[in-house]
Design a protein that fits this description.
The protein is α+β, with helices and mostly antiparallel strands. It has one domain. Helix content is 20%, strand content 26%. The strands form 2 sheets. The protein has a 3-stranded antiparallel beta sheet with strand order 2-1-3, covered by helices on one side. The protein has a two-stranded antiparallel sheet with strand order 4-5.
Length: 105
């Protein structure tokens, strides 16, 4: 019996301006392959903790479309650089788009 796995990607916005100033970034990104979204979210929390961040500093993660780009972070790593020049947008609000005027990496 094969279990269908799916790629899950999440955008973690920093909760407020105070946390943004303290942390020095506006959002984080995480993706992994899992059989359920709940497992992917749990892995995201573990990766965030392993990277030294507290989930209390972030709003509830938003599932975004898996970006097809050359500079996507490694699977299972909570990354804060990937979102420096991207934010959820597009017609559905769940496609990571380049921020106007931001240079791509």
């Amino acid at each position: 019996m094969s279990i269908k796995q799916e790629e899950y990607s999440f955008y973690y916005k920093v909760k407020n301006e105070s946390a943004r100033k303290r942390l020095g970034f506006k959002a984080g990104f995480f993706w992994c392959t899992a059989k359920k979204q709940s497992l992917a979210l749990s892995r995201g929390e573990l990766a965030m903790d392993a990277a030294g961040f507290d989930e209390a500093d972030f709003a509830r993660p938003v599932r975004v479309h898996f970006p097809v780009e050359n500079d996507i972070p490694p699977e299972g790593v909570f990354d804060t650089k990937f979102c420096e020049n991207r934010e959820p947008g597009g017609e559905d609000g769940k496609t990571l788009t380049l921020i106007p005027g931001a240079a791509s990496a």
